[in-house]
């Protein structure tokens, strides 16, 4: 029983894996924050999609006018979907990369650039910043994931 | 070769990891069920988005009328997207949490509340139940993921 | 310190895990490719959703006409979302499956069929191929994931 528990914690004792865990938790929490931002815009802009969500703002016909789209709500939703499209590959490929035995400094470089670029991307999307700010931050994070995938495929290749 | 196989199964021998595997499989299967529910509504409501999908219901001009949106289809799709937005962080953060050495009872509490809340959320979305049923079940599952992320960051922190 | 690093690479030394890593990297890269395909259609069809993205094509009123939807852009986006809905469960359940001690040949069969079916699905969606091509490839990949989930639940079950 003791040996089993020791085994279970060994991954988290590895420094590269600890770095992966830290940055993955940060980018997933950042992605989750998009839900709160969307909810904030839905409530302040009074723009809902489900009839049952408008109850606090009126009943019957008077509530129907809140079933509408709002540019800020849609912008936050697009930022959220873009996170899903880009953070899911980072989490999946990053795990395999962390287990492929990279140098700690190289791994940290990948994780830090990805995380910084995605946080910048969120600001660029929500403010919004003029292009190519958002486009470049998207491309930087995308390239980091490609670089990790290359290391994974080089190390693990078994087709 | 023997030692290698023993190593490969050790994670799955750990009780917290087994619990994580069980609940992750359940919530991912539940998320996959949303595809079948959307397909069911598309077929019974005859509401499609791709022209090539309407072939069974008519040809040419007569098929075009099935290229439309339907409230039940859209509701199922929103439930599916909400699952993606919330179950992806659970799967990613939950894996790191399971490897961070929590007590089995604490881990089970997290996994059970999350899974129960997300199953309730699906019923609340599809029926639909009056608010705040859906909102509360969303918030409960969200809080469980935050709690696991806190444990991961406390254990693994390496920035 | 040396022993720690040896431990960190043991998963990647396991053949089933190497196969999982290879196919997961491939399907996630394929999913990421959908972003580039969407961007390609947005630029060639001049169909954007964010006002700040139209700058290269005109200013003020003349740029507004590029804020529109385009059938090819929407088709690529639906293919991307379908990937998220199906590749996320594969990555999550596949990891647990790879750790549940399957035979290498059985695991390879699962990973190869899933990957082949999802690559076919993308072609079927984008060309598009007549149905039931896309529907069948979706169902094949879906069934592979269900089969892996069954093995995971049978091996790990701890509720």
UniProtKB/TrEMBL annotation, chains A, B, C:
Any one Gene Ontology cellular component term annotated for this protein: mitochondrial outer membrane
Gene3D superfamilies cross-referenced by the UniProt entry: Membrane associated eicosanoid/glutathione metabolism-like domain (1.20.120.550)
InterPro entries: MAPEG-like_dom_sf, Membr-assoc_MAPEG, MGST1-like
Pfam families: MAPEG (PF01124)
Cell location: Endoplasmic reticulum membrane; Mitochondrion outer membrane
Primary localisation category: endoplasmic reticulum
Subunit organization: Homotrimer; The trimer binds only one molecule of glutathione.
Protein's name according to its UniProt entry: Microsomal glutathione S-transferase 1
Protein species of origin: Regulus satrapa
Taxonomic lineage from the root: Eukaryota, Metazoa, Chordata, Craniata, Vertebrata
């Amino acid at each position: 029983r003791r040996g089993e528990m020791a085994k279970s914690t060994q991954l988290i004792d590895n420094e590269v894996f600890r770095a992966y865990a830290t940055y993955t938790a940060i980018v997933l929490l950042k992605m989750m924050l998009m839900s709160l931002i969307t909810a904030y815009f839905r409530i302040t802009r009074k723009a809902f999609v489900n009839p049952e969500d408008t109850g606090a703002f009126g009943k019957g016909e008077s509530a129907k006018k809140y079933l509408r789209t709002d540019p800020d709500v849609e912008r936050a939703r697009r930022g959220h979907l873009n996170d899903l499209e880009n953070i899911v590959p980072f989490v999946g490929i990053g795990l395999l990369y962390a287990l492929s035995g990279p140098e700690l400094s190289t791994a940290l470089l990948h994780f830090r650039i990805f995380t910084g670029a995605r946080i910048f991307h969120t600001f660029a999307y929500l403010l919004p910043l003029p292009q190519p700010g958002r486009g470049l931050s998207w491309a930087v994070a995308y390239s980091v994931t490609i670089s990790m995938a290359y290391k994974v495929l080089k190390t693990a290749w078994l087709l």
